[in-house]
Design goal:
By secondary structure, the chain is α/β, with parallel strands linked by helices. The protein has two domains: 76 residues, no CATH class; 248 residues, Metallo-dependent phosphatases (Purple Acid Phosphatase, chain A, domain 2, 4-Layer Sandwich). Helices cover 30% and strands 22% of the residues.
Length: 348
Amino acid sequence: MSRIWTEAEVRDILNRRAEKWSWQDIGTRYAVSGEAVRTIARKYGGYGAQPSSRFNVKAPAESPRDVLQKLPDTQLREMMSARGYFVEKLTPDKSDLRYKIDPAMFDGNVVRFGSLSCTHLGSKHQQLTHLHSFYQYAESKGVKVIFHAGDMVDGIDVYRGQEYEIFQHGVDAQRDYAIENYPRLKNGGKTYVISGNHDYSFVQKAGTDIIEQIALKRDDIEYLGSYGAFPSILGLNIYLQHGGGGKAYARSYKMQKNIEDMTPDKKPDIYLLGHYHSSCILLEYRNVTAFQLPSFQAQTPFARRHGWPAETGAFIVTITSNDRERKDGISKVEFEFVPFYVPIDKDF
């Protein structure tokens, strides 16, 4: 059955076209094809589809951007859905939330945890064997908590040509692969993870949070939200973050600038930064001890083209406080860098 167009709708179509809207965008507004609204415009506005005197149409002053910005979120999502996209809004309640880690995971006033980032499961360049080796080593050291600073999986369409660098395609494949293959601490420990830009690509492309889904199927994985979280242990404040952008001219630069930009209420005792696939340590920079975390992904062709190195490894951090409530602060910080110098080819 053909659609019956109202006079108001025809006026709107002609006005949008006068504002230089594309036929496809106008069609999306009415959930029809661009050709359908073009036919209506030709019928009532002439071949050039300009506003017709038949309706005494006067083009409004608002631009298409102004009109779109005034639309409610639900209508914007419907318009994007009509064009084949899935959209989820990144809400504030998923970023930079605060959590308290169970103190039973630690030995008195000694806090020991593992820290890593960028495992990129599903990538042809993942280092799954080394990842399992690190978990086994951390468990032998009594570690029951591991913080993961994002990019647990490799995602989709993060950069041009990525589809040739992955062996698990799509959200279902990467989710199920991670659930099955991500290592466990066999001593009852847990992995606390945030999502990075590769993980969040599935929200942007498919409207689903893959890390949240993985955590629902694994009782040893806890999801702390997107891009940043503030876990605390016995009064020890930690900021776990997945960074953004490319590498800086110096390894320490990103950490330094991020710490300098932190407000006093957001400044942690320990700062764990992922995303850059290279290691760096800042001891007491503006009263913050910071670790930039390496990865568990060998250098990809994309990284090689950009001149970005890829270090494989992780840290084990041991912090001793003067008492359980840290009334007198940290008395000692020890760390062990656990590197894996030789990547394994086709480790999948």
